[in-house]
User: Fold these one by one.
Assistant:
Number 1:
Amino acid sequence: MQLPADDATTLALWYHLNSGVWSNVEAYVDSVYELHNKTILDPESISLVPAGRTPLGETIEARRSCRKFAQRTMPFDKLGRIFHSAYGITGLRHENGSSWATWGRATPSAGGLYPLELYAAIRKTDTVPDGVYHYNPIEQRLERLTCCAVSDINRCLVFPDFVENANIVLMISGAFGETLKKYGPRGYRYVMLEAGHCAQNLCLLAVESGLATVCLGGFNDRAINKTLGFDVQKEAVLYFMGIGFAA
């Protein structure tokens, strides 16, 4: 089947749907592959040594992936900080001095379109009943989904054991439409980059809050999109994260 090069939506969706979870078991065995490291022979190379320490620098250095979480209850205030730091509203911005304004957020976004949505399977937290929720950043609230349960979300992961006791199993989805409309096929890259920005915000906030995270790309796309009731022509899950207390 041939696709027109200027058909941004179809090109992006075809790539997305055909780059699902890799079934090669060896891909998950660390010893099979070597770490990438590129060195250029340069007799005048310059040595870089970090000068001094800062709170942010220490937070970055402390970030690690956690694959075993403890059975602990998460305080409600940590829950609120997590979602706000990931994709919350940080202020109203006026672009280029014009009257057009957009809600600024903690994550950079191509064109200020903010195409991401956050969903979470939440359990063992103060105040919030166990269940699956959508985060509404404009109204700063969690909206309960009735279409699925926490166990349904875990079954969509390749390695659900990694998040067995995580208080939050976060899903970052992307609504591609407006970004592709504005930027063409490259808009797909921008949505994916934004998901990475959002995840890194969470990783650093977790360290600062005494929490641990694990970022997961190993999930069944068809299963999770069906579980959440998505029309994949409009929205699809891009990223999973586990958040909780390290065991």
Note: The beta strands are 89-94, 101-105, 116-122, 131-136, 141-145, 168-174, 212-216, 236-244.
Number 2:
Amino acid sequence: MPDFGRAKHEKYRIELPSSKPEYPALPWTCDATMINVYFEVRKEILLDWLPPEYGRTTPAYCRLFIVDNSQSPAGPFRDATLALGSRLSMMPAGFAAASITNNRTTLAAGIFERGYPNAFGAIEFEADRNHAHAIICDEKGPLLEVTLPLLQTIEPSRLAYDHVDAIKTSRGDNGIKTELLVTAPDFKVEHAAICKNARIEYPSERPESAWQILNNRNLVSAQLVRGTRTFAAAKPPG
């Protein structure tokens, strides 16, 4: 029998804005470049953050993806997500344990339509044919740094990414509620490269943050991809 998560939905409840801001209707088609990294984490910690609808994988891992959206209906924006590798109804999935964007419009759309990204911060991002680098910061400072020092081009067809889900906070008739929402796989890869000596580092100690609680035990794989991203609304599973 698989190990199922033990995190209550309330763990992911957030404070909603006093009013719903305006933003362009979803879905958004974005020109995007993504750093995508998989790394192993401690099983018990992953289960503490994973909702009970999901079973863990073996080994326990996280997917970290940082996206530079150079063009979108909301303007340029960057977002980063730390997703727990898992299975939903025995199919591969990811669950967003932490997420950040540097764009207030994207933040509003994420909170009200998707469940993520749901926090505001700063994201440094640079990438060329040879290397890629990103730093994720919240309003207190740096959380995590990723470096892909040497890239090797591969066929885009070698890569595919699973859907990533999240808990959305909303207002209901009986007050604040939380619900699980599922997003579709959102990236069409047009150019791809892999890195065999990528690094994840933690520039400052932030022991209270999911970005560091779910820390890298062993880096498994890393890619830089370019293509089209569909930033779409989420829906209940099933």
Note: Helices lie at 43-49, 104-114, 210-213.
Number 3:
Amino acid sequence: MAKQQLSPAAQAARIRQQQLNANMQARQYVIENSIDMWQQLPPQSQVGANPRGTVFNFQARNVGLIKRFVIEVSGTFVQSAAETQTRTAFGPSNIFSQIVLTDLNNFQRISTTGWHMYLLGTARRQRAFGSAFTNDSPVLQGSNISVAVAPSPLTTVQTFRFFYEVPVSYSDTD
């Protein structure tokens, strides 16, 4: 009995499906044999009363599959004797006016504001913007540990702390 010939379109579809299957097998192998690791970058600091225009650059080690960057920002707010400073609606997520991620090919992957990066991280981790429990978060989200700290109103010298998540992949298995 003779073999049935496939049309060129059907052959192309079959080859494409074989390529997708091979890619999925390779992807599963890498994910199953990978080890989650945190890569620490050297800290940088801003000294002075007016940090406007300051640019911080971080060079990650090009090792492994990078899923995301977590940026911790902490410092001290100081106000003058005659003023009281009040936190904005998005609070310390406004610390950075722009966050830019440029890959190794000098292609700009991310260029957005700090508050937008915060909202994307919140949506990505499926956290609600509001809260149904006691709220101690400076951006009105709620938390069970104080990772985001920014007092309001600011009447003395007080410290702040905030984390940003800058995604590199779409998900932990991407």
Note: The helical segments are 8-32, 114-124.
Number 4:
Amino acid sequence: MDKFTQAYIPGCELAVDEVMIGFKGRFFLKQYLPGKPNKWGIKVRGIADSANGYLLKCDIYKGKKEIRQQDLLLGEQVVQQLTENFWGKWHHIFYFDNFFSSTNLMKILLEQETYSCGTTRANRKNWPTEFRKPTVLKLKTGESRKMQHEDVVVVVWQDKRVVLLLSTNSNPWTDGSVTRKTGKGNEEIEIACPQAIINYTKHTGGVDVSDQKREYYGVGRF
């Protein structure tokens, strides 16, 4: 891990995610994650450069042997441990999914001069009461609602399904657009999309790229 950070200076955008190292034998750390390409194996949390998938640091999930900090959620603790070497440089640690994100984590990272962005869940602590039931907002495709408390922006956006996101690195007034198929052959339309979600979609796959390259160039066992 020390050599990883010594050999390469990362860009601005970094991504945090978890991947599986495929393994079906007997091992007390073996996990089952049905949503991963390798459903059985060893779960690893990592941080990578979003531009090229370069893995900067990773940590193996240890199950019951994990040392927990009682004042933090597990996802908050994992992100802090993975990102602390990059604090104070105004990196954009975008790009973690709803397992990791919380308003508390956003504030902690911002205090350490680090921006962040991630999808979240409506039942998380400090999520706005007005957005607890996003379906009640009855948003049409491309519509969004936003709120801001101090430096944390909350975004609710309607795509094919509703998307919930927290951000400290985007202007809540800025929207872009994305292309979607209409279902009529190859016909496409553009719909409005908050800039925070565009940024998230663009940069969130750093760890997935790293995992993909690891599969291509696996180390053989002898």
Note: The mean pLDDT is 86.
